[in-house]
Amino acid sequence: MLGVTDYEAFVLAFTIFLLIPGPGNLVLITSTTKGGWRAGLAATVGIILGDQVLCWLAVAGVAALLTAYPTAFQAVQWLGAAYLAWLGLKMLFAKQGAAPILNIKPYHYLRQAFFITLLNPKAIVFYMAFFPLFIDPLTQRGLLTFGVLAITIAVLAFAYGALASLLTHFFAVRMRSNPRFGFLLEKLAGLCLLGFGARLVFSR
C-alpha cells in the first residue's frame, strides 16, 4: 500500500510502542489526573505534534546529522533531561494543596507535553531505524509513503491518548476524594520524571 509493506505489522508494532512506560505516558496520566479529560486530550495533541516533528526530522535525515555531530546530539539530550528534571523537581517540592504543576489551561498541558516529547532526540533515531522496516524500496513513493506512516502514527497516538485520558479521568474522579493519595501520586510522578531525565542522559 503506497510503498508500505506489512501495514498491519506496523500498526501492531507502534501500538506496542505506545504502551511502553515513558515521559509521554506519564505526562498524559498526570495531566488528566490534575485537569480532567480535556487536559488529557490537550496533552495527547501535544504528544502527537512533538512526534510529528520528530518523524519528519527523521525523514529529513536529522538522525544522521546528530550522529555525525555527537556534540549536538548530546546538547539536545542534556536540554531534554534538564526540562524533565525541572518539572520533576517542581512536582517533588510542591506543597499539598498548591496549584498543579502540569496544569491551568489546556494550552499549558499541550505545550508541556509537546516539549517533553520533542526534547527526546533518541526518538529521531528510533524513527530512522523503525521506518525502513516497513518501506518497500521498489514501490515507495517518497514523501507520500512517509506521510502514510506519519498519519498512521498520529491516528494511533490520538486513539490511545483519548482512551487513556478517559480511563484515567474515571479513576481520578474517585481518587480526588482522598487528597493525600493525589499528593503522593504527584511526588511519585516527580521522581519518575527525574528518572526519565537521568536515563535520557546516561543510557547510551
Beginning-to-end CA distance, first to last residue: 35 Å
Count of domain modules: 1
Tell me the number of strands.
0
- Estimate the strand proportion: under 5%
Mean pLDDT: 77
String of helices and strands: HHHHHHHH
Low-confidence spans? none
The biggest sheet amounts to:
none
| Rg on CA atoms, Å | 18 Å
The helical percent reads over 70%
Classification by helices and strands: mainly alpha
Shape: globular
Characterise the protein shown here.
By secondary structure, the chain is an all-alpha fold. The protein contains eight helices and no strands. α2 (23-59) packs antiparallel against α7 and α2 (23-59) packs parallel to α8 (179-202). The two termini are 35 Å apart. The relative contact order is 0.22. The mean pLDDT is 77.
In short:
The chain is mainly alpha-helical and 204 residues long. It contains eight helices and no strands.
